[in-house]
Specification:
Blueprint: H1 9-29, E1 33-34, E2 41-42, H2 53-66, E3 70-75, E4 78-85, E5 89-97, E6 101-110, E7 115-117, E8 120-123, H3 125-141
Antiparallel strand pairs: 1-8, 2-6, 3-4, 4-5, 5-6, 7-8
Helix pairs in contact: 2-3
Keywords: Signal
Signal peptide: 1-29
């Protein structure tokens, strides 16, 4: 016995798919967070000695390597670092720097739910943790105290 004999199977299927789409959207949105590039980090002189641009660059590359980020390209005052996790998730950032500061900027990602929305860009929260971990390691190399607990390594997703 049919509950609604006048409703066709195709209409029932369409309603079911629409209902699932409505309820699945909040679940997918829960795995995304606003993508906001962190502010520039000011590098203080250590024991009265200012850092050189080369020392800052080296601290960035070493910090990246410690968190499994690899140097993809560089030019004076700018490096591009990339991380690839199990060949399933990847991200690239550009880090601009001089002797007094550095700044991390999102470039691209694979399988990290990056998208542009009406409210702005969003990405998987793991990317944010990866960048915080990268910055904590760079800061450590530059003698900058970290104010947050050290985030997870890049291989965690």
């Amino acid at each position: 016995m049919k509950l609604f004999p006048s409703i066709s199977r195709a209409l029932c299927l369409a309603l079911t798919v629409a209902t699932l789409a409505v309820f699945a959207t909040p679940a997918l949105a829960g795995r995304s967070t606003p993508l906001v590039n962190p502010p520039a980090v000011v590098i203080p002189a250590t024991a009265g000695k200012a850092w050189t641009e080369i020392e800052v660059r080296d601290a960035i590359v070493r910090g990246g390597a410690a968190k499994t980020w690899v140097l993809k390209s560089e030019q004076p005052g700018r490096v591009v670092l990339a991380v690839d996790v199990r060949s399933r998730h990847a991200a690239e950032v550009a880090i601009t720097y001089d002797a007094k500061s550095y700044r991390v900027e999102y470039l691209s990602s694979v399988n990290l739910n990056y998208r542009k929305t009406e409210q702005g860009e969003v990405i998987h929260p793991t990317y944010i943790r990866w960048v915080r971990g990268l910055m904590a390691e760079i800061n450590k190399g530059l003698g900058i105290q970290s104010t947050q607990a050290e985030p997870a390594d890049a291989d965690e997703l």
